Amino acid sequence: MTINNLLEELNPAQRKAATTDAQNTLVLAGAGSGKTKTIVARAAYLIDKGVPANEIQIVTFTRRAASEIVTRVESHLGTQAEGLRASTFHTFCLSILRRYPKVFDLKGFNVIDRDDQIMMFKLLRAKLEDKRAKEAAAKANQTSTGKTVTFQRSKAVPTISEILPKPKELVDLYSYSRNTQISLKDALYKQLPDFQPAYEEIKAVMKGYEAQKQERHYLDYDDILEYVARYLNSDDWLLERVTENTKYLLVDEMQDTNPLQWLLLQPFIGRTQLFCVGDDAQSIYGFRGADFENIHSFKERVPDAEVLTLDLNYRSTQEILDLSNWLLDRSELDYKKRLTAHRGEGSKPVLHSFGNEFDEARFIVSDLKKRYDKGAPWHHHMILLRSAFSGRQVESALIAANIPYVFIGGTKLLEAAHVKDLISMLRVTVNYLDELAWIRFLTLWDGIGDAGAGKLVNEFLTLPDLNACIEVLDKKSKVPKPAIEALKELAKLQELPEKSIDIAFDALTDQLQKNYEKKDWDSRARDFDLIKQLAMRHGTLADFIEAYILDPISHSEVSKQDNDDLVTLITIHSAKGAEREVCYIVNASVGQYPHIRAQDSFEEVEEERRVLYVAMTRAKDELIITRQNLNTWATSRVDGKNRTIESYFLSDVPTDLLANDIGFRSFGRQRSNFAEHQPLRNKPKIGIDFDDDLDDRSDGENSEVRF
Ligand SMILES: Nc1ncnc2c1ncn2[C@@H]1O[C@H](COP(=O)(O)OP(=O)(O)OP(=O)(O)O)[C@@H](O)[C@H]1O
């Protein structure tokens, strides 16, 4: 296909965007308005105009989106598109870190993932606990030897686990602080206000975490971005090198970028043509720090920026868009959006209410079956969920009814415990200083506990290489001989990742089977074939490990065959870009949209509105919304800033927007009184603590969380 054919496929607004001469452009693209098509056309247009493909960098949020864009450009331009780069923010930054290691003074680092971080925080908490216990004992000792003894009932000193957030929460807090570029104190205030009294302890743990990362040459996800962002902002040599290879930067899903990502994009302004595409109404990652302002203030932040809008929707019928538009219209935020359906009219959405989740699941299954019996394939149907957990009832109903389905949005394949066990064995062979991988690997074996593993690892850290560690293992540990032999073999074999997986699997299988005996080992074992398929795509073991630590692929992404006829069960956060003929939004009940936990914050409620909007706009022909336990519902109220906070988005949907007469009925079983269910935790007001707002890191040296 020629570029002219491709451009002819676009509507005038899309064409204007794809062929713009503006130095910087923001394309505000409504749901289903052809965002991907426009980015593909933009890249193809630039290449056709003579821009070398390798001067164009496309940045997306998922590896899947990146490879889809490249494949589509290649299908239009063939070899002319060779060298076009599309990657996630993290992979883009990692390639810069790898290319200019001297600039960052980062020879030989290891990327650690969330699980590794959680493990580190666990260990650090334990260390702090130990220290406090020792201090308390020393104090008690002092008192008992003192001259005056007062017989007072002393209050028990709270333990660290009582006063500190859980390791997972600490990881999220740490990451939030870095991604939003706010101080730890502010992040704590926003994310975990109940833990503010433990600020000093939290700070100590975080400092310990950073010291340990440095010592062990670990980089976490946020380091990867922050190193590159800070150095690009301060090292002109680096900026020149990077921008001479990146004359055009195309950014997808701009609404999901956060302040750290903005910091990364900033130095490109003026040196690179920026072409950013996004939809503010689909911004649903605020909880991870995504910042609306990256879109709303684009024009002020980027000189001479041209802002274009795409609002002709190709996906859905007008009735589906009418309901989606209504939902946005009710917001006090101005999304300046009114989607119009290119396809014209169709059928109105329906809203069904049920007494409980079992009836709701039964309805969905029977509705699916009816449609299938009438000739609709399973893959025309998508069931949208709030969270993986909230889908359990529907999932078991699908299983019981023998309906084939794929689940997207659950645990990622490379995050599953048994897979990480195997990867830990491979990781130590890539880098023998990888303490976390050693601990995971060693504690897999019978007879090796945390303490024993810790001792061995401390010794490994003083040794010159992997072979020396293997010798120590052989002499001093309970790791069985075959596993030690396997490690030796793996040490020599770094360029055949799929073979390495076989060797590691053979060495570990008996022990893993034992460890996962009661946890569905047979289905877990099948995952290793999938891992091999992934590994085959990589030239070295190190490459494979790094790629999938950065962006763990989901189980279904690997196992799904294109010709499988399956219903899609998906979390809304995974459903961006997805579309199906028939979509079910499950459990759109009171307390779910907006979620009850969000109901005392205007910003969070608005994000919830956008979650529901993303879900609605996935449907092409039919939108079926189901809910439970509808008895009474609270109406809107007003927050401190006189903004309306809605307590239930669907409390008064105009009946003419729906096909059925929903009639608010109460349902027999499980009656609930909504008023009793509102927790309304007293979150403190959000504001900046200027005392803590250090902003003196212009030298690019320090890529750490601010205290
Ligand atoms: N100009 C066009 N002519 C015909 N179909 C189009 C055109 N532009 C987009 N489409 C179709 O509209 C649908 C939505 O496009 P696309 O997936 O690119 O939208 P999107 O803006 O990325 O959507 P969302 O942000 O909601 O995921 C696709 O099926 C696409 O082929």
Give the beta-strand count.
Answer: 18
What is the count of DSSP helices, taking H or I runs of 4+ residues? 30
The side-by-side strand order for the widest beta sheet comes to 3-2-6-7-1-8
Distance between the termini: 55 Å
Q: Report mean pLDDT, rounded to a whole number.
A: 83
Rounded to an integer in angstroms, the radius of gyration calculated over CA atoms is 27 Å
Roughly what fraction of the amino acids lie in strands?
Answer: 5-15%
Structural class: alpha/beta
State the share of residues found in helices, binned by percent.
Answer: 40-55%
| Uncertain residue ranges | 148-154, 663-707
What is the overall silhouette?
A: globular
Largest sheet features: 6 strands, parallel
- Provide the list of bound ligands, each named once: adenosine-5'-triphosphate
Region (Disordered): 683-707
Domain UvrD-like helicase ATP-binding: 8-317
Enzyme class: isomerase
Biased composition (Basic and acidic residues): 697-707
Q: How are the elements arranged and paired?
A:
Elements: H1 3-8, H2 12-18, E1 24-29, H3 35-48, E2 56-60, H4 63-77, E3 85-88, H5 89-99, H6 101-104, E4 110-111, H7 114-145, H8 160-163, H9 167-180, H10 184-191, H11 199-216, E5 218-219, H12 221-234, H13 236-245, E6 248-251, H14 259-265, E7 273-278, H15 293-296, H16 298-301, E8 306-310, E9 312-313, H17 318-329, E10 340-341, E11 350-354, H18 357-373, E12 381-385, H19 392-400, E13 405-408, H20 417-430, H21 435-442, H22 450-460, H23 466-476, H24 481-492, H25 497-515, H26 521-535, H27 541-550, H28 555-559, E14 567-571, E15 580-585, H29 602-616, E16 619-628, E17 637-638, E18 644-645, H30 674-677
Parallel strand pairs: 1-7, 1-8, 2-3, 2-6, 4-5, 6-7, 9-10, 11-16, 12-14, 12-15, 13-14, 15-16
Antiparallel strand pairs: 17-18
Helix pairs in contact: 2-3, 3-4, 5-12, 7-9, 7-11, 9-10, 12-14, 17-29, 18-19, 20-21, 20-25, 21-22, 23-24, 24-25, 25-26
Bound molecules: adenosine-5'-triphosphate (ATP).
